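Worked problem 6 (solution included).
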Amino acid sequence: MDPLAGRPAPADRLVDVPRLVAAYYTLKPDPGVAAQRVSFGTSGHRGSSFAVGFNENHVLAVTQAICAYRRKQGIDGPLFIGFDTHALSAPAFASALEVLAANGVEVLTAADDEYTPTPAISHAILTYNRGRTAGLADGIVITPSHNPPDSGGFKYNPPDGGPADTEVTGWIESQANGLLEAGLKGIARMDFVKARRAAHAHDYLGQYVADLGTVLDLDLIRAAGVRMGVDPLGGAGVHYWGRIAETYKLDLTVVNSAVDPTFRFMTLDWDGKIRMDPSSPYAMQRLIALKDSYDVAFACDTDHDRHGIVTKSAGLMPPNHYLSVVVDYLFRQRNEWQPSAAVGKTVVSSAMIDRVAARLGRRLYEVPVGFKWFVAGLVSGELGFGGEESAGASFLRRDGGAWSTDKDGIIPALLSAEITARTGRDPGEAYRGLTRELGEPLSDRVEARATPEQKKKLAKLDRSQIRISELAGDPIEAVLTQAPGNQAPIGGVKVTSKNGWFAARPSGTEDIYKIYAESFRDEQHLRTLIQEAQSIVDAALA
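Solution. The predicted structure is:
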């Protein structure tokens, strides 16, 4: 824990933006160094230009590989592209546009280079492709999500609108690294001014906002007079909230409209870094201080694919608490969804969701970390909801159609107001009601630094390495290295018992590993779970 966690960022913690952008253009990755190659994690290729992990050559190579993939798959419709407010996102957008235009791809980008949230791109892809069997669209999202200001990120979304699956990203990654090894030979590139003229403007903001009534009961929120506050955290949705309030006549106040690539308005996260994580109590100190000013308040991360909910009754809600409330509410209220629509969750999400789903009589679909595992189910309507423990979620339109097959931080945020309007109690009070009926879990997530080599060891942990028969005093019910919902490897291990569980896995975006633990007993039981998990991780990394 950094001693400045939760406090305003001092000047010496701010990124030097001119040096960062200069490094993007001047430092060239060495494909012989593993950390400098293209590598798609759970959500695209990410890195910092300072560490030669996200530089111009990476973006040129990945974009050319995406063009090759489109030709290979016969994807010949337009490509929707957008970028967030990180300092490296606009340069990466320029680089990508030069390659896309030179390859003859029809590019749709926001007018006046407006920032574009991840869910707005997914929504645009699905809207364009609805009813089509040919000429399908796909997209590129340029964002490192909530990661620190020196980070850059690049993600491909195929015609299903969601994050590309591992087969697709593996192919793109291989092609891109081949181009790096060949010194970028084979990359087509057009002058930026010409490439920008060739692109077409798309009204992401207008289309997304106009369609919100198909997924949320905004009339109910307005009629109830729910007072809402929102902090965009300097992110891509900064101009969306005012339009939402104006269009639907909502009592919605934007408490911070600043956009600054240093993100100097943030409070430092647990490790002393600036991280736009709406689920972190350290990063969310400013909005937490306003909790009594609104019926419900919320924030989204930089690309607006994650949410954080602040209530009068509970302050900042842990993501698992709010997701449990969301599942309980949606599957009771969305009567037009398929009766068989399942609840999607990741293996490290709360077992409270399991208990809520069981009480609702809904099938639980438990998958590894990564929103890509929910895409097909959301498209077909077989999943009514898909959510991750890191506050990323999406759910169906009110009529059961797909809304966004990528994470959408905006609709869960606004849903907190719909819940408040319909039930007369905020989501924090709703969660307390669930605990009275289903038990009260205590949970924690421990993060620690890990080298890339250590992360690989943990990701390949085998069940045979778990040589214990009890977990914190209870018989072990399951040792999982594959997710129960789809049998895909979870990239770590999960151990469960009647009264608790833990999971250990490496981060897909940072050089850390994470231990998740949850107890339905007490604090001492939770601490024991974490200690035993730590021993297993230590042995694996030794």
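Discussion: DSSP finds 17 helices and 22 strands in the chain.
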